[in-house]
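Field guide to reading this record: the first block holds the primary sequence, the second block holds the structure written as discrete tokens, and the final block holds curator observations. Each block starts with its own label. This record concerns EthD family reductase, catalogued under organism Streptomyces palmae.

BLOCK 1 — SEQUENCE
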Amino acid sequence: MHKLVVLYPEPADPDHFRDYYVTNHLPLVMNWPGLLAWRYSFDVAATEGEASYFAVFEGDFADAAAMAAARASAHGQRLAADVANYATGGAVVIHYPVQGGTG
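BLOCK 2 — STRUCTURE
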């Protein structure tokens, strides 16, 4: 599996961010070809001190190639362009192959 993570710093208008994200952006995410699962939160906390981020998104893809194809698709480009409509603090996008195990 390959994970895409988007970290959102504090926006200028947190209420607008939350409303736009849930009402407009997430419906686009739900139809993103190649996306296996997704999660998000507005309740980002640090174990010590203040959190550097306001919100986080996680998306799972089968592998790096599937994620790259999804991001390069017309739908992926539309998703990327939509970020400017709510994330006035910007966005940090990271991705990585997931290693795992059981406890």
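BLOCK 3 — OBSERVATIONS
The radius of gyration is 14 Å.
The first strand starts at residue 2 and ends at 8.
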